Amino acid sequence: MAAAARLALLLLLLLGCVDLLQGVRYLLHCPPGWSYYKLSCFKYFRQLRSWDEAEAQCQASHPGAHLAWVEEPREAATLGKAISYHQRTQPVWIGLRSPRQRSPCRPRHVGRRSATFERRGWARGPAR
């Protein structure tokens, strides 16, 4: 009976280690200097670029990389915290535009994702 209990405990510990190791595998998946969030890696670049230039720089920095795509408020908060480690005083624009702008916005496609994004809480930008 004690041997069966020890075996069951050992199996539970091994299953826990496998779960832990899978998390480590994803953390080790990110290149040096990149941040990890929900199976994705993020990197902050200081240089000011247009959207197209920034996308090209991002793609050149690592195979398969694209500009950040924020899908939920929690992800936006996490990305904001990661950016604040690099830049504390200046606002950061990640390429989103309000569809209410007077200038037309052509849709962007990153991989299979459309650029349409439902977002509230926009910061004020420069007057155009």
From TrEMBL:
Q: Where is the signal peptide?
A: 1-23
Answer yes or no on keyword Signal: yes
Grouped into one coarse class, the protein's main location is secreted
**Which residue windows are coiled coil?**
none
* Pfam families attached to this UniProt entry: Lectin_C
Q: Where in the sequence does UniProt note compositional bias of the Basic residues kind?
A: 99-112
Q: Which InterPro entries match?
A: C-type_lectin-like (IPR001304), C-type_lectin-like/link_sf (IPR016186), C-type_lectin/snaclec_domain (IPR050111), CTDL_fold (IPR016187)
Q: Which Gene3D superfamilies match?
A: Mannose-Binding Protein A, subunit A
Q: Which intervals of the chain are annotated as region Disordered?
A: 98-128
Q: Where is the protein localized?
A: Secreted, Extracellular space, Extracellular matrix
Residue span(s) of domain C-type lectin: 37-128
- Which keywords label this protein? Extracellular matrix, Secreted, Signal
Family annotation (PANTHER family): MANNOSE, PHOSPHOLIPASE, LECTIN RECEPTOR RELATED
Can you name this protein?
Regenerating family member 4
- Species name: Apteryx owenii
Show the taxonomic lineage: Eukaryota, Metazoa, Chordata, Craniata, Vertebrata
